[in-house]
Amino acid sequence: MWQTAPPFSELLAGCQRSAVHLEMRDHYDDPDEAPRVEAWKSGYRPDPDDRSTWWRPWLDMVAETVARGVEIRRARIVSEPVSEYTRYLYDGTFTNVAAGEQIRWLPRRQASDLALPGNDFWVFDDRLVRFGYFSGEGAYLGDDVTDEPAVAKLCVDAFEGVWDRATPHEEYRV
C-alpha cells in the first residue's frame, strides 16, 4: 500500500535492525542545507574535534539509532568527475561516519548494468520503503512509503548490488 510518508524521525525511530539509503543524484537543492553549502564554498569545513559544529539534529538521530543496534548504511551513485555538490557531501561525510553511518560511493559508470528504481529511497528493516522525489534542479518535492513486498525486494536488491561494488568512504577519493 502506498501512502504519504510520516516524518522521517518516526520511520527511523520505528526501525529495529537496518536502514539503508540509496542516493542517485549529483545535486540536491535543500533550502535548509543552502547555508552550509555556501559556507563550504567559502572555505568553511566542519571541525572534526568540535561536534557542535556538525549537522544537527540529523547526526544526533543517527547516533541514537545506531546506539540501539540499528545498522545504517548509505550508498551514493555519483558521476565522475564529481559535481561541486558531491565534493561538498564528500568533505562532510566524516561526520556521518563518526555518528555511526556506513557510507560507500559508486561511480555511475560502474552501475550501468544494475537494475535501479527511478528514485532515491530508504528501506527500513528490509520491508518499508520511503521514496524521495526531486525536481530536475534537485528541489525536494515530497515522498511516499510502501510496504509492498515486491517493491521492498527491488529496493533491497538494488541497494545490495550497489553496496557490493561501491568503495567505502575511507578509500574513495574525489
TrEMBL record:
Residues 8-173 form the DUF6879 domain. This is DUF6879 family protein. It comes from Streptomyces massasporeus.
